[in-house]
Batch of 4 targets.
Target 1
Amino acid sequence: MTEPERRLKVLFVTSEAAPFAKTGGLADVSGALPRALRERGIDVRVVMPLYAGFDWNALQRLEGTIRVPMWWGVARAGLRLGNLPRSDVPVYFLEYHRYFDRPHLYGPPGDGYPDNLERFTFLSRGALEVCKALNFFPDVIHANDWQTALVPVYLNTVEWAKPLHAAASVFSIHNMAYQGVTDGGAMFVTGLGREHYNSSEFEHFGSLNLMKAALRHATLLSTVSPTYAQEIQTPAFGNGLDGVLRERGGDLVGILNGIDTEEWDPATDPYLPANFSAEDLSGKAACKAALQHEAGLPVNPRIPLFGVVGRLTSQKGFDILANCLEQILSWDAQVVLLGTGDREAEHFFWSVSSRRRDRFRAWIGFDDGLAHRIEAGADFFVMPSRFEPCGLNQMYSLRYGTLPIVRATGGLADTVHGYHQESGEGTGFVFHDLTPDALASTVGWAVATWYQRPAHVQSMRRRAMAEDFSWRHEAEGYERLYLDAYRRRRGHPLEGFRPAPPAHGPVPASVAKRRSRTKRR
Ligand code: ADP
């Protein structure tokens, strides 16, 4: 008799997931990775807050309430159930209006709500109460970023000697720049005793640091690209936690994010005025003309069009772009930018936009459809990031045949192959120095390539579009990580588990190369 197959059970806790609530890449990951895990046969369930701003009526309201212990007493939360689109992955929404029925997820732009520690204490503690209410005892709980950093800590403390204590925890870092830092005096809000406010757990240079506690308590750690996994162990990228990460360097793995290849598919994308594929690029030309028209720029297929989309923050290097924009606009090229963030940056790009209507257009705001149209209509995509844990836009660009111009950092270094002028090899343009000169020279190189070596642009485009950045392959990396974490926690492997067959079809060379780098050192 064959042993019954044992499914791996995973709870995925996140503060945002597309399409329900999104401020950045974490939402894209949370909306897509669980689906890919589900396709591998993993019983994965998602828990997140119920925010204002989307149609709650589509969700099923579950009977009863969840009792979440808080510092001030017990919060009675509602629970609603939905699915990640195009899947049967359950998403449990914790409903507690006092904390989440607000205009923003974390606070107005550039600011956090003063009670964020309390709000995300509620999410982390509430996620564990959801497990108990559903009688779902996961093998692994996967927490993401500072908002859920308390999950691994609670498993080792308030759940000690209780059934959930058996669950291993994986903590994923999506961005070291946000660590959930607050005043040490607020320790009581976590519901944990003052004794946990010590330099091995929450205390970090005189403040309470949620991420530090997670880095210490989680069974295993991951981040979203192999290069970033190395970078954050250095002072330049570790934002003060590089020492902690070095100590746990053997438990940290970098797994490149995938992209949602259904949502981002130029052949079917409903946001586009015309669809296209590597075999037939005529639709891309139509997208370019439509984008030039939408931007109020001269509609001309011969002028190279550069696209930029992203949060206007120092991370994304927009100050570097600001400092060389005039030089770029002195060439025969057009630039369109969509972003929101720092007020100063918004004002700067908006003012250049009103002055240079001939070559530059900025949209200040968040607009999913426009982001898709820029990815499709532009010829090149600019990402001068100061640091980039993974970055998704460059992968969307590659898939849409829009050649990325990136700084060699984090996931950008792992996904874009630099152009080689002699051979014509490459999928984009890569530069190293974080200076306006380096960025301008690289944009200039792209402009020159466009005018002087159009055959190279065409072949790079085809190569870029053939790359496979789907989650299929990277989900395998997470499965291995979960199984490792389980083994660590329990002291034995998950018995009866049979891994799904490898992702369909042969692994493309670029993916094979990336995967070989995701192994833990
Ligand atoms: P991060 O998470 O650091 O913001 P990523 O590149 O990982 O960066 O993900 C950013 C995601 O947010 C992408 O899907 C991108 O298209 C989207 N995005 C960023 N800014 C905007 C905007 N102003 N309008 C629409 N989408 C945006």
Note: The chain is about 35% helix and 20% strand.
Target 2
Amino acid sequence: MKNVILIVLLFLSNFFIKAQDNDLKLKDLNNLEWFKQARFGMFIHWGLYSVLEGSYKDRTMPDKSLPNGNSWYAEWIQARLDIPAEEYKLLVNQFDPLLFDAEKWVLEAKNAGMNYMVITTKHHDGFALWDSMVSDYDIMQTPYKKDILAEFVKACKKHGMKYGFYYSHWQDWEYPGGALPNWCEKRSETDFEKYWQEKSLPQIKELLINYDPDLLWFDTWNEECHINPQRRDQLIGMIRKHSSKCLINGRISFFNPGDNIDYLEMNDNEYPKEMLNKPWQTPATMQNSWGFHAKDYNWKSSKEMLTYLIYNISKGGNYLLNIGPKADGTFPIMATRRLREMGAWLFANNESIYGTSPVNINLGDDVYLTQKKIGKEHYLYVFLTKPVNQIKLPFHECKATTVLETNRPLDGHMENGTFIVELPSDLFRDSSIQVLKIIL
Ligand code: FHN
């Protein structure tokens, strides 16, 4: 009997996961095309800092940026709480993520409607999550002693998930010559070049050759500081030499990305007002911090994050939403709950998100649009993030208007050259974002 129940449960869980497997066959699409269609991805900030969860000894990092502009992200704890490098390095003895299960992460992302994942392979602290031949400061020094990236990549491949690597090519607080937390305090060019040649470039090459990523996510956000056009182009050249598919983000050199990158990366939690002339995405947090901070209570609601996702899609961009896993390898429940809520909404409304394109019409601050053509039909999707009585569409005629999730027909009429759709107030009993489907 127990076995029968188990088989039924396995069947159901598999069904649930498959059900959310939107019909995008991303694995068959090349390079930029998959990125443009993917829409929603998961960012993962995970490393030694995850052991500390934002506190060290009797000190806790603030949960927001201070007026001097310093960010107090948990992954910055070494720098912000002035932990001496030798002391910080001892965290390798505590990083033992026995509950890490890469497949669970991938399935959680998939179930949330995400189509790619980007993990921090080395953050600014210089610690590598893989078995690196270039530096000993890596996962093999921890009690865990297993290559996290190898497991991650295997799970992504198994489930058709595109995968990318964040690599801190500029900041490195471990290797002599790597850029410092206070980025304006420059290293000498000779010192930085040594770090660049001995650690940064060889590790990136190692990532390309050993794991064949779909995307590399580089991180700069301020003035040029060491990553000048020569180094930027040298790095791009190396990537192109070793991979014909790997996408490169604009933050390889934020203020001067040049013409050879693949897509623009916004600043953290930044949402452009206009459409952009290149593919783009916003890296975004669920709490203030990227790495898990147990006392950062600034959790955004799933509706707020869905609104950002829809906003970006309506402007042709992607949304890369971050999770900071705990040091044991699990996602914080606060993150999981939000992911599942977003996934549930996307499950019901996915036709308005995937395979759509932006519409260059502004219907006001809280209303967003996408569109899709199927055969001869032209569909318009209207996202209502707040309750309204009616919407006015600049069209002479609409064939039909329904609520996407319920198929409920809505009344509409022409008035002074615009098509007005009346919205019954009970539509907003449900506080989630409502989507109207309009056949033009
Ligand atoms: O300093 C990093 C930060 O820790 C985090 O990785 C973000 C992600 O976009 N990038 C830098 C700040 O912009």
Note: The first helix runs from residue 2 to 19.
Target 3
Amino acid sequence: MTAPAPSDTLMEDIVGLCKRRGFIFQSSEIYGGYNGFYDYGPLGVELRNNIKQAWWRDFVQCRDDIEGLDSTIIMHPKIWKASGHVDSFSDPMVDCKESKLRYRADQLFFAPVSVDGETIGYVSVVECIDQQEVAEKAATEMKRKMAKQGELDTIELKEYTEAKPEQYELIPSPATGKSGSLTEPREFKLMFETKVGPLANDAATAYLRPETAQGIFANYKNIVDTGRVKIPFGIAQIGKAFRNEITPRNFIFRSREFEQMEIEYFISPSADWNTLHREWIDTCIDWLVSIGLPREGISEDIHPEDKLAFYSQATTDLMFQFPHGEQELWGIACRSDYDLKQHQEHSGKSMTIFDETAKEKYVPHVIEPSLGVDRTLLAVLSAAYTEDEVPNDKGKVEKRILLKFSPKIAPVKAAIFPLLKNKPELVEVAKRLHKKLQRRWNVFYDASGAIGRRYRRQDEIGTPFGITIDFDTIEKDGTVTLRDRDTCEQRRVTEDELIEFLEEQING
Ligand code: GAP
């Protein structure tokens, strides 16, 4: 599988397919939709579950050093005070007073437009793949309109967060193109608040968790006390997280309700965290490839030291080539002992562990691989989306859309077709095989329409295998045809061979 080229049309194609075939819907659509929230339809929920199950199996069940956890979404508000979220989990926001639109200041870019060194105005652009091009076009247009002679100087875009106070008035709003309506950036708190209990006063304020990680830190002591773990060990959790994102966008890439798959991997303070961090990065890349993402679509973004939080030793983000550009998919951070020490201080409970091997007691450090389920699903969809041309039943070459999902995570693993729906003997064998396979995998029975059309429908939802019951099956040797989604090649196999093949492809 190759990495998708960034393109807005690819995103539109994916969004359209997701709605048409029942993967993902805009939340509350019958009421006009609700920005930043998405619902997963019949195929979406299967795909989502398969991604989560693959992660859980590979990182929890197949490892002896990682334990699972499922903590609550609403936790004691002191947890968020201790973690620092109450005071500092925010994004810089800027408002356009005229259009009433709101931007994240770190996703809004501006540049002075200068001709032969003389500044003639400013351009602004919201973060996008071709932001430099958009800004240059706007600058050329400004020069033309102002009838300025001379050379346009290089456009150097900067984040709005870097603008000087005297520039706020001069930078145009991307919504109106006019200057004077953008506010200065101010911090916008991302945590959703709620009230717990019958009294709606300040003391009842609680938060929907913005990450699953703190549930792990808050339960670290419980898990250590079960006696099941010894350093180094990890605690893994999959669960919903909520952030009141200023500008949710790019479909499910940045939403207000999403799901995370997080691990806190506890290590000795004297461990070689550099090597362990590298091992985690490689393990995470291998896992993404194992679920079908192209290796060449994944890159590493190493955070520069001066941009790290004071407690963090290193952070590397695994980036993926999404349709809207290369963006963060998986964050892998070395967070020292900061979180545990904060909880130790705020709760008054000791967070030390006795290291049997080193014979010493300490608060461990952590490596934190943190992955979004929805972002993984978008990456998988972008990598799988393919258009090609294949001959139809009559031999005429037609365009087809297919999703090249890995059989491991494909929502439907195989489709079973009787060649003709009005031949009871074919239907009976097909239905029996469907029932048999259904006990192990999510498979689909389809008898309606020409066989080519039925293949096409399955290709579009990414079903890797088509199994057809024809007259040879019932009159000759009991074999069925097995069709490969990507190559369209067909071969005859016995039922035993079929099951062995599916087992190997799906679970192997
Ligand atoms: N505990 C660390 C943490 O939460 P993060 O970088 O804020 O770190 C980790 O989030 C991952 O969660 C991201 O790499 C991304 O995959 C996913 N994620 C974060 N915010 C998201 C959002 N608004 N919508 C969808 N996924 C999101």
Note: Residues 211, 213, 243, 245, 254-255, 258, 260, 262, 328-331, 368, 370-372, 374-375 surround glycyl-adenosine-5'-phosphate (CB under 6 Å).
Target 4
Amino acid sequence: MVDHREIRVPFIPGDGIGPELMAVARRVVDAALDRSTKGAVTIKWEELLAGETAFKATGEYLPAGTLEAIKLRGVALKGPLTTPIGGGIRSLNVAIRQALDLYSSVRPVRYFEGVPSPVKEPGKLNVVIFRENTEDVYKGIEWRRGSKEAKDVIDFLRSSMGVELPEDSGIGLKPMSEYASKRLVRAAIKHAIKKGLKTVTMVHKGNIMKFTEGAFRDWGYELAEREFPDAVARETDLNGQGPGARIVINDRIADNMFQQILTRPDEYSVLATPNLNGDYLADACAAQVGGLGLAPGANIGDSIATFEAVHGTAPKYAGKDLANPCSLILSGSMMLEHLGFDSANRLIIKGIERTLGEGLLTYDLARLVGSRSIGTTEFGREVIARLG
Ligand code: NAP
């Protein structure tokens, strides 16, 4: 008799289109796991509260119990959450990432045959973006124009630093530390080694912001040379020679990167970025291969990881069974790989490749090619029918 194992996985259905996408994503994940383990492993899903549903039930957008449960299980699948308008939490997503120290935002971007794209050769783009998730201007240290804090900072800069700023300035801080920059670049290099990828590129505006983004680049090189001397070679040290089996580590200024990812996408495989650059770059890359409805994402720390669709709650489509579930299905697939079920992950990718490749598209993609669309639930059924 085959031993049966049950693993517990928390999930947050999310707001807007979240619950309908989550229902489909969970079905696909269950089916792939069942098929790849021949029924030996199943997931016991544990629903957690966050967002508008949580607020209605508990008066809080992010109950402490939700964070505790994710800490306990070490993993969660998360639907999109509405950002509360007004005071309190700036963004629930940022709050979860900071509370659990999920310091790498990991966004794989690849092309699926059959998906309409705005570029001529979308298949040339296949990158994984590692975006620092805890610092930079996203730290949320900012003060409104005219506030006491803004005035105090302006006075301090004038009196102690000799820096003059207009009195009507809003003020924001951009902290970037050696520790956080290095652990992000370390995660990116480890990923490249694990997956046998050829390059790790640090994307920064160090030419302008020398002590934050420039330091990010310098710390990254320092870490690569000290911790991975045999696995990694610096592009500028190669002198036109091939890197052999080593991974090439290089850096690109962010504006240059935005044009190279369009003109020479196949020269890049892992992009390591500070928080804000990564935010822009990940969506720009996703647009090249068909848009946000297809892009999966993960937020990974040392012992905890959450997997989530990168799009938002798209409230106008909520409850209509129309939205594209690929992003959340592929996030679930990344979660399976993270949990050690890579064959289930590969089954799902195959299922999505076949479904999209046969022209079965949800409204967002079908409208671009003028074909008939299928709904969220039907798309999930078609993927399950094509697993592996
Ligand atoms: P959004 O929810 O991502 O939706 C913007 C548009 O993107 C939609 O109107 C739709 O385009 C398209 N879209 C998004 N998801 C789609 C899907 N699965 N299938 C097909 N099309 C999809 O962005 P938003 O309207 O700016 O944000 C709405 C709320 O979500 C806000 O409260 C925001 O803060 C929150 N949000 C949450 C997360 C998160 O939880 N990770 C991320 C981003 C935003 P068309 O109208 O062209 O069809």
Note: The radius of gyration is 22 Å.
